[in-house]
Write a structure and sequence with these properties.
The structure holds two protein chains of two kinds. Chain A is α/β, with parallel strands linked by helices. Chain A folds into two domains: 158 residues, Rossmann fold; 67 residues, no CATH class. Chain A contains ten helices and ten strands. In chain A, the strands form two sheets. Chain A has a six-stranded mixed β-sheet, with helices on both faces. In chain A, strands 2-1-4-5 form a four-stranded antiparallel β-sheet, with helices on one face. The model of chain A has no long low-confidence stretch (mean pLDDT 93). Chain B is mainly alpha-helical. Chain B has a single domain, classed as ABC transporter involved in vitamin B12 uptake, BtuC (Orthogonal Bundle). Chain B is 73% helix and 3% strand. In chain B, strand 2 and strand 3 form a beta hairpin. The chains are: A alpha/beta, B mainly alpha. At the A-B interface, helix 2 and helix 3 of A face helix 6 and helix 7 of B. The structure holds adenosine-5'-triphosphate and magnesium ion. The site of magnesium ion has 4 residues of chain A, from helix 1. Magnesium ion binds next to helix 1 of chain A.
């Protein structure tokens, strides 16, 4: 479904990504794990065409999107939950969800999708007229996920959805990710919480300073000595 | 009391013009964090267009005004495309300097074409004032206030309940995330410039009816006042621009009547400084924003 080939990216003189290649198959949850500054966000933003890339090719559903205008990607079925939630704080919960469905015109289907989001996140329904900026961190994360789902994506990319949440909420978020995947959405998950991410995903890639240093089935990565040491805190 | 009321009316009159112009500054700032110094000069451009329309092209006043609005809108959109868009990812100061440059360029071109000498504005309204028990309400004041408040009301509805208006708020809060939502950010930015410039053209009409003399520097004074109004209310915030405009207009005309007409501008700047000391983000601003 998604093939990233030899992706390189610079910030001025800083070489942030060195020839990254990976792929995501339909129906999978694939996780990218790595420490702070490894380049996880850069990869997602390169795929979303928010960051300009130096070399490489990005193929989504058989078509290259390397030169596609970023605002067209949600229409093709690609959606991103950005790092740090980035809800529109001065807009209501309901308006945030509307923005998620911005390009869509099928009003009836949009309403059905919104009801589904409200069903999945009852707190959002209760607070639909409240400004998003007044929600708690966990609620904002739910809103960010709900907003991305409003575009009815084929591939959902999530950038550290567990960041800054309490352990209970973290488990809840990972449960939600599983549910979303079981409902038919492919997920590319970026995480620092390697343990959790590897336990919900099918496959994973380990990123270190802009390079992929290990990859494989999540189960295998969980048992990989190197990964254990560096990312799971097990000596 | 009558003096006070009539000065209050005057204040509301000029205040609503400032508010209309301030909206253009604030919307553009909100969406691209740029202080569009050429905004005031769009007033000047519109005024000359009305002059040309009526005296050179022989159009009716209504058609000339319409022409001035359309040209101002198109001009605003082109200005953003040509002068500001290429600099969007450059340091903020580059586009700021460009904006000042555009402003000077426009004034100089106007001088070349029309000479620096003021010419009379060809539209005047000679409808007798309403006498409200000793207090005179001129038709111009009535028209100005009704038109401005009506436009602000429409703008508020546009921003709060249309899809494009909501997208505008989304882009102004977080451009990157708006792009992730599939919002065509460039189109929304063009739309913002279009609306701001259109309001400036209408502001120009109302301003010139009140002060019917057209010169290349026409836009400078109302431009700076409206800019202050936008900052006073909280730059980037639409209700802030409206509030700031009215406060500024009323303060200015009361200061003229009761303190000193020469000191009125100093008083206006004084108010701005005092407000910003206590509320650095402006009256309606909540968090401190990065200043240019
Ligand atoms: N706008 C920028 N300008 C310069 N360097 C940047 C910029 N954004 C990221 N970088 C650098 O690129 C590298 C990768 O950053 P990136 O944000 O992709 O990391 P990350 O893996 O998402 O980290 P985190 O887990 O902290 O979110 C880092 O070294 C970072 O300092
Ligand atoms: Mg990151």
């Amino acid at each position: 479904m998604l093939i990233v080939k030899d992706l390189s990216l610079y910030f001025g003189a800083i070489h942030a990504l060195h020839g990254i290649s990976f792929h995501v198959e339909e129906g999978e949850i694939v996780t990218l794990i790595g420490a702070n500054g490894a380049g996880k966000t850069s990869i997602l933003c390169a795929i979303s065409r928010i960051l300009p890339i130096k070399t490489g090719d990005i193929i989504f559903n058989g078509n290259s999107i390397t030169n596609t205008a970023p605002h067209l990607l949600p229409q093709y079925g690609l959606s991103q939950v950005p790092e740090g939630r980035r809800v529109f704080a001065r807009m209501s919960v309901k308006e945030n969800l509307e923005m998620g469905a911005f390009f869509r015109k099928d009003t009836a289907q949009i309403r059905r999708d919104r009801d589904r989001v409200y069903e999945q996140f009852p707190r959002l329904k209760e607070r639909r007229h409240q400004l998003a900026g007044t929600l708690s961190g966990g609620e904002q994360q739910m809103l960010a996920i709900g907003r991305a789902l409003m575009s009815s994506p084929k591939l959902l990319m999530m950038d550290e959805p567990s960041m800054g949440l309490s352990p209970i909420l973290v488990s809840e978020i990972f449960e939600i990710i599983k549910t979303i995947n079981e409902a038919g959405t492919t997920v590319l998950l970026v995480e620092q919480n390697a343990n959790m991410a590897l336990s919900v995903s099918h496959r994973g890639y380990v990123l270190e300073t802009g390079k992929i240093i290990a990859e494989g089935k999540s189960q295998d990565l969980l048992n990989n000595e190197l990964v254990k040491k560096a990312y799971l805190g097990i000596a | 009391m009558t003096l006070f009321l009539s000065q209050l009316l005057n204040g509301i009159h000029v205040g609503s013009i400032y508010a209309l112009i301030a909206l253009g500054y604030t919307m553009v700032y909100g969406i691209v964090q740029l202080i569009n110094f050429a905004h005031g000069d769009i007033l000047m451009l519109s005024a000359y267009l009305v002059v040309v329309g009526i005296t050179k092209l022989g159009l009716s006043p209504a058609l000339s005004v319409l022409l001035s609005i359309v040209v101002a809108v198109v001009f605003g959109v082109i200005l953003e495309r040509v002068a500001y868009r290429p600099l969007r990812s450059s340091p903020r100061i580059s586009s700021l300097i460009t904006a000042i440059g555009v402003s000077m360029l426009m004034q100089n071109v106007a001088q070349l074409i029309f000479s620096p000498n003021p010419i009379p504005y060809p539209i005047t309204l000679s409808v007798p004032a309403l006498n409200l028990g000793g207090l005179y309400l001129s038709f111009t004041t009535l028209l100005t206030v009704v038109l401005s408040v009506g436009l602000m009301f429409l703008l508020q509805i546009f921003v709060s309940s249309t899809k494009a208006g909501k997208a505008m708020r989304a882009v102004s809060e977080d451009t990157g995330t708006a792009l992730l939502m599939g919002i065509h950010v460039n189109r929304i930015i063009s739309l913002t410039f279009a609306i701001g410039s259109g309001l400036a053209a209408i502001g120009s009409l109302l301003y010139c009816i009140a002060y019917p003399s057209v010169a290349p520097t026409l836009g400078s004074l109302p431009g700076i006042k409206a800019f202050i109004a936008a900052v006073l209310g909280g730059i980037g915030l639409i209700p802030g621009a409206m509030l700031g405009g009215f406060i500024l207009g009323i303060a200015e005309s009361l200061a003229k009547a009761y303190i000193s007409s020469r000191m009125s501008d100093a008083i206006v700047y004084g108010i701005l400084i005092i407000v910003l000391l206590f509320k650095p983000a402006g009256l309606l601003g909540t968090k401190t924003r990065e200043k240019v």
